[in-house]
UniProtKB/TrEMBL annotation:
It is found in: Cell membrane. Keywords: Cell membrane, Membrane, Transmembrane, Transmembrane helix, Transport. It is a multi-pass membrane protein. This is Probable membrane transporter protein. The chain crosses the membrane at residues 7-37, 43-60, 97-117, 163-182, 188-206, 218-238. GO terms for cellular component: plasma membrane. Coiled coil: none annotated. Its main location: membrane. Pfam families: TauE. Belongs to the 4-toluene sulfonate uptake permease (TSUP) (TC 2.A.102) family.
Length: 239
C-alpha cells in the first residue's frame, strides 16, 4: 500500500487525467506518467498500467454501441508483437531515451497531419498503429497516440469507444508481457490498485466534457492531447 504522501500527490493527477481521457479517449498516461516517474520511478510503468486498466472498461460500458469492430480486428492482433518489443526495449534500453524517441516521432506525425497529410483508415495503417501502440504503451505507458492519429477524423463517440475497447485488451497484454518478463512487481500492482478510486471519480466527472467535444472541437482536443504526449516524453528525457 503506498503511503499517504504519494496518494496526495499522484491521486489528484490521476483524477485530472481520467477526466481528460473520459472526454477525449486518451490522456491519462500523458498526464500521470511524468508525475509518477518523478515521485517514484520504480513504480513505472506497471503501477500506472494497473491503475489505468479500469478506465477503458468504463469507456466501453458507456459507448459500446459506437465501437468500430473492423478497426479493432486489424489493430488488436498487432498489439501483441508490439507489446513484446516494448518489454524487450524496457529491459535493454534507457527508458527515458526510448520515450524521447517515441515522443519525437509522435510530434512529427502530428505536424504531418496538420499539413496536407491525411492518414487513411486501412488495414496497413491499423496494423502499424496497433503495433506502435503496443510498443509505446508497454515501454512508456503512453500508447494512445498512434491509433488516435489514424482515427482523428472519425466521430467522437466512435473514437472514444474504439480506443476504450483497444485499451482494455492492450493494457491487459502490456501487463501480462511485463509480468512474464519479471518487470511487474507486487508493489507496482498494489500501488496501481490504490489509485483506481481516483480513476473512477475522474471518469464520472468527465461526462460534461464528453457532451461538449464533438466534430472539429473533438479533433482539436485529440491532437492537442497527442501533441502533449509527445512533448512530455521528450521533456522527460531532456530534464
Amino acid at each position: 500500500m503506498p503511503d499517504i504522501t504519494f496518494l496526495l500527490i499522484v491521486g489528484p493527477v490521476i483524477f485530472f487525467g481520467s477526466v481528460v481521457q473520459g472526454g477525449v479517449g486518451l490522456g491519462l498516461g500523458l498526464i500521470a506518467a511524468p508525475v509518477v516517474a518523478f515521485v517514484e520511478p520504480s513504480l513505472m510503468p506497471g503501477a500506472l498500467l494497473t491503475a489505468t486498466a479500469i478506465l477503458p472498461v468504463l469507456s466501453v460500458a458507456t459507448e459500446w454501441r459506437h465501437i468500430d469492430w473492423r478497426t479493432l480486428a486489424w489493430a488488436l492482433p498487432a498489439r501483441l508483437p508490439g507489446s513484446v518489443a516494448g518489454a524487450w526495449l524496457v529491459a535493454v534500453l534507457d527508458p527515458t531515451a526510448l520515450g524521447a524517441a517515441v515522443g519525437l516521432m509522435v510530434l512529427l506525425a502530428v505536424a504531418a497531419t496538420l499539413t496536407a497529410l491525411r492518414i487513411e483508415i486501412t488495414p496497413v495503417s491499423l496494423l502499424t498503429a496497433g503495433a506502435a501502440s503496443g510498443l509505446t504503451g508497454t515501454a512508456t505507458s503512453i500508447g494512445g497516440p498512434p491509433l488516435a492519429l489514424v482515427l482523428q477524423h472519425s466521430a467522437a463517440p466512435m473514437v472514444r469507444g474504439t480506443l476504450g475497447a483497444f485499451f482494455v485488451v492492450g493494457a491487459s497484454l502490456s501487463l501480462a508481457v511485463l509480468a512474464a518478463g519479471g518487470q511487474l512487481t507486487g508493489e507496482q500492482v498494489g500501488t496501481g490498485l490504490a489509485l483506481v478510486p481516483f480513476v473512477v471519480a475522474g471518469f464520472a466527472a468527465s461526462r460534461p466534457l464528453r457532451r461538449k467535444l464533438e466534430n472539429a472541437r473533438f479533433r482539436a482536443a485529440l491532437l492537442g492531447v497527442v501533441s502533449l504526449s509527445g512533448l512530455a516524453l521528450v521533456l522527460r528525457y531532456l530534464l
